[in-house]
Design goal:
It is a single chain. The protein has 391 residues and is an alpha/beta fold. It folds into two domains: 2-284, TIM Barrel (Alpha-Beta Barrel); 292-390, no CATH class. The chain has helices at residues 43-48, 58-63, 67-73, 76-80, 92-97, 101-104, 106-109, 146-156, 174-197, 214-225, 240-250, 268-275, 286-292, 333-337, 340-348, 352-378, 382-390; strands at residues 2-9, 12-19, 22-26, 28-33, 54-56, 86-88, 125-126, 131-134, 141-144, 160-162, 203-208, 231-234, 260-262, 281-284, 295-297, 311-313. It is globular and about 60 Å long. The two termini are 37 Å apart. Residues 326-327, 330, 332, 334-335, 361, 364 line the site of zinc ion (ZN).
Amino acid sequence: MEFNVIKKEGGARVGEIKIDDFVVKTPAFVPVATKAAIKSLTAFDIEELMIQMLIANTYHLSLRPGAEIIREFGGIQKFSGIRKPFMSDSGGFQAFSLGKGAILGRSKFEYEIEKKPSKEASIAKISEEGVYFRSIYDKSLHLLSPEKSIEIQHDIGANIILALDECNPPSADYDETKEAAERTERWAKRCLAFHKEKKSSQAIYGIIQGGLFRELRERSAKAITSMDFDGFGIGGSFGRNKMYETLGWLQPFLDKEKPVHLLGIGAIEDIIESVSYGIDSFDCVSPTMIGRAGYILITPESGGNRKNKFRIKITNNRFAGDKSAIDENCDCKMCKRYSKSYLNHLFKAKEFSAYAIASYHNLYFMEKLMNDIRDAIENNRFKRFKEKWLG
Ligand SMILES: [Zn+2]
């Protein structure tokens, strides 16, 4: 993998990730293809939308269909028919969170899962070795260790893979967060060692943790960036205002030569703000998830702003007879063809095409947004662009 910064404006930067035969222009939005698919869209839609890269989910794919099936195909691109570069996550976040543990806090993670193999306890238990968890599908017991995560990701064959990290809930206190950040560091070393030993040509990113504590974030950033990763991910959940502050703390510690990915962030204002802190890529389920719930992303020209989160709810009764295009200022094929009234009807009638139309438009919107961001930075207009969007 090769990464070149082409243009900078303040902290924001435009770059290019060259990986295998692909070029990903950054800042880039990376839609989530959890199960090697974007819900309600086909590979043809994805290619038509000019989506640059997708991120698949190791936890789900390793349980279903199983990493070995994908390996037999020669990797996720051949398996899915999607001829685009892929990232895969480590599977850690889902192993930790697909139980009540992550919501209730770390102490509740520490369930004796062997003793309580009930529905209630399909939860993770963390040790130095890795994370033990029960499958959400059949309750079978699995160990996700740093080595196992990398092995599965080698089988899935994404172009960029992520080291296993321990993500703790925002409610975690200093000691819990410190323990998790230090374990993340040790796991990162093991991931990298295993990856090198297997001589994989995939790129690998290390993940920075440290929660809401400046000292821990800085320490994690120093440790992870000192390792021979191809790029870095910033993990953890934080409240919005705390996120910008955290990115500010991290900025001086990030390797200027390597790409930085912000995990799980996809709100419009968060993307625009984070780009000014030098973030190069983002992934989030949000555009398609809100799309399936009837939310249509709109630009400032169509009345989008921070307050309405740049969206309208198309299922609202006021759109029932509205003959105007889904978004009059969007030139995606869905907006050129369909009215608000018709999409409102499709949602109410629970027609499957409603999800496809909304997802298509929202991903088109994201691609256009990222394209406009890159264009603004290249022409020294990013500050003005940010003001126009965020006020
Ligand atoms: Zn559109």
